[in-house]
């Protein structure tokens, strides 16, 4: 897919995934290795933003033909799993403004329902990193993107940052929002009959924040 940017599938990245996918991984190991992958994802996400030329003078008096971001950037975390990416983003961009969106699937209709949103002021004027670690069916991601569009954010200015994604979810977002860029560290094999990703990682939010004893989902 044209707007899907998969991290380089290095041996190092696979080693990190080996730890976080292990159902027996402890909380400290899961968080440590997840944060390392998150940092790679966020740097890749920022690389999708526009740049302008910016020259600087080096300590030896030479000119370095450099770049700097050409636009304001903020982030929106899809609660709760998306909040796992906030600390790493603040390390990279101190002072970055981060909004929140809470979307949950209705138990009766199985459709995503928006419960809460609080977006940074002026969000429509720049680019947005949408933080959503798990892209399974794509329903929640599309609902979150719709919230941003209603706030005036242009579709091509949204970068969706996913830890892992299913092919079904990537296709659903690409069909509904073809101009949104997606950055992901792994594309899974498929969804199972319960709409869980295979091989998967379990409930990312529960495992990251220590509210479950098992990643076996």
From TrEMBL:
Protein keywords: Glycosyltransferase, Transferase
Lineage top rank: taxon: Bacteria
Residue spans crossing the bilayer: none
GO molecular function, one term: glycosyltransferase activity
One Pfam family cited in the UniProt record for this chain: UPRTase
Residue span(s) of domain Phosphoribosyltransferase: 8-211
SUPFAM superfamilies from the UniProt entry: PRTase-like
Gene3D superfamilies with a match to the protein in the record: 3.40.50.2020
Matches recorded under InterPro entries: PRTase-like, PRTase_dom
Recorded coiled-coil stretches: none
Protein name: Uracil phosphoribosyltransferase
Record organism: Nonomuraea monospora
Originating gene: upp_2
